[in-house]
Amino acid sequence: MTVTPEVLTYYAQDLEHDRLREGRGRLEFWRTQDVLRRTLPPPPARVLDVGGGTGVHAEWLLADGYEVTLLDPVPLHVERAAGVPGLRAALGDARRLPVPDQGADVVLLLGPLYHVAERADRMRALREARRAVRPGGLVAAATINRHAAVLDTVHLGTYLEEPQREAARAAAAHGVMRSPRRGFTAYFHQPDEVCAEFADAGLPGAAQYGLEGPFWLYGDVADWLDDPARRTLLLDAQRSMESEPSLLGVSGHLLTVARRES
């Protein structure tokens, strides 16, 4: 996917590799893994991991027996991902996938949709995902929820800083997050907005799963994740309310899943 110089500069700092591997980011990782393992077709299915970063999800998908191809716009990410045994990794644009029609059983968009602020670009990415997946195949996309910045900056204490506060409020009001710290623009969805975009791309009937629920805002969530017994309870707790409509927007991230009908 084509990204702005600001986005490339941010990811060139190599901050993404550990984001889902440590701290509270593991909650997003394990919940994404949990939902996908319940919704993906059985291996060996062909998975196209678009915007797959350094291969954090590709690694477990390969271990589960899937055939995985990773595309990412950041050269550093592709270089790192290429070192994962069995993974095919290449530079790629979510809006122009270098794959044949119906060439995949699954297309994952676990990042691209919040890096394209314009709806037209998001629609191009979703339509490309639909084109690339076979009839009956799965398209799954992650999005950031509309009020995530307000929730997160209050949690972190940075809501006290006027630039952070104004950016978070603007994202809540209009969806466009211009991060004063990360230096790039992102798009934050309302949950029902994601379903509408899926439907307009020819992917109706999408199911939605709140990934973190309210638990990403708990001060001791990393301690729960460090303890296998407590981690199991925490993941079970969120699974029990993952698709409750009144709670979908509390998660930092939402996973939306649909099958191509024909």
UniProtKB/TrEMBL annotation:
Q: What is its EC number?
A: 2.1.1.222, 2.1.1.64
InterPro entries assigned to the protein according to its UniProt record, in alphabetical order: Methyltransf_11, SAM-dependent_MTases_sf
Record's keyword terms, sorted: Methyltransferase, S-adenosyl-L-methionine, Transferase
- This one is known as Class I SAM-dependent methyltransferase
GO process terms (BP): methylation
Instruction: Recall the GO molecular function terms of this protein's record.
Output: 2-polyprenyl-6-hydroxyphenol methylase activity; 3-demethylubiquinol 3-O-methyltransferase activity
**Methyltransferase as UniProt keyword:** yes
Gene3D superfamilies recorded: Vaccinia Virus protein VP39
Q: PANTHER family, per this entry?
A: METHYLTRANSFERASE, UBIQUINONE BIOSYNTHESIS O-METHYLTRANSFERASE, MITOCHONDRIAL
The keyword Lyase is annotated on this UniProt entry = no
Per UniProt, residues of the Methyltransferase type domain are 48-140
